[in-house]
Amino acid sequence: MKLLISNDDGIYALGIRTLANCLAEAGHNITVVCPDRERSATGHGLTLHQPIRAEIVESIFHPAVKAWACDGTPSDCVKLALWALLESPPDLVLSGINQGANLGTEILYSGTVSAAMEGLIEGIPSIAFSLASHVSRDFQPGANFAKILVEQLTARPLPELMLLNVNIPPVTEDEIAGVTITRQGVRRYVDVFDRRIDPRGKTYYWLTGEVIEDIEPPLGLNLPQNIPIDVHVIQKNFISITPLQYNLTYASGLQKLSNWEFPFP
Q1: In angstroms, how far is CA 248 from the centroid of its own chain?
Q2: Could you report the per-residue pLDDT of 88-101, keeping only the tens digit for each?
């Protein structure tokens, strides 16, 4: 398959190198276009007020991989690849493997998921891969699973246009309990701004955060209750696959608001 791979951890990240090399060794046609530095938690930001530059990068990836480093956001990278760098569209857009989980409401901030979502917006099935740890550096189990998943999608394409958000538990391959289709959960944080003083005596703030609970999504979303949520299965060492879409319309809200009347103008 022809695959476009991006990320938000930057061109030198071990996660994207492991993913791209594993898939190249499996015989896939791989192009990497990703940020030239870490751009985590940039969401779906685009660069509008300055030019975007991209340079070919050599000697980082498998010899069969063509790689570009872009000074824009993850979404910039995928958009630039699809509209300017690639001669023809890829079969799939992949993003990752991210250093750290993208579970529950974290996906709203995720540059990893946003890079994959940019492919989806352009009509290309996409997959975001994340290793659910900021400490573990073993990306090989995730890359091996990515190879299996891509092979499966080659034989059985997705039934509809969607993004698969894949999170891999930070354990050895033998310790992975299995693979589970999940729904997106909700992560609640205590957002702590660490107040500091710079050498010139001016105050600045450093955003930190700690997960305080993982909860079920609201019932009004009409999600099937028999499907487990992503944040729970990861804790049991299962790989989580959550199908996502870019349409954020609240279906139940449409029904509940349909009888509103507005005396305006």
Answers
A1: 17
A2: 999 999 999 999 99
